[in-house]
Amino acid sequence: MRASGYIRIDETPVQVLKSDANGTQQWVRVAGPPGQRLILFEHDPSQSAQVAARLLEGARGYVQSDGCEA
């Protein structure tokens, strides 16, 4: 994914069942050529820029996001 040159990333609040937390962020990353898309989901209690930086660490090229300011 990191070598694809173009990654789309977004986070969406979701309720986590059987958890003490009120919710979590579901981070979604999409990359790859048409017909060979790679979609990764990861849960984190935060939607901070540090989470996005960790998920995109080592990536080169373009990142597309909704531009949410948290």
Q: Work out the helicity level.
A: 10-25%
Q: Give the SSE string.
A: EEEHE
Number of DSSP helices? 1
Q: Compute the gyration radius: what is it?
A: 13 Å
Average pLDDT confidence is: 82
- Annotation, overall tally of beta strands: 4
Number of domains: 1
Assign the structural class, choosing from mainly alpha, mainly beta, alpha/beta, alpha+beta, or little secondary structure: mainly beta
Termini gap: 25 Å
Account of the 3D structure:
The protein has one domain (6-59). Helices cover 11% and strands 39% of the residues. It contains one helix and four strands. The protein has one helix at residues 49-56; strands spanning 6-14, 24-31, 38-44, 62-64. It has a four-stranded mixed sheet with strand order 3-2-1-4, with no helix packed on it. The longest helix has 8 residues, at 49-56. The protein is globular. It starts with 5 loop residues before the first strand and ends in a 6-residue tail after the last strand. 9% of the residues are buried. The model has no long low-confidence stretch (mean pLDDT 82). This is Transposase.
Please describe the topology of this protein:
Layout: E1 6-14, E2 24-31, E3 38-44, H1 49-56, E4 62-64
Parallel strand pairs: 1-4
Antiparallel strand pairs: 1-2, 2-3
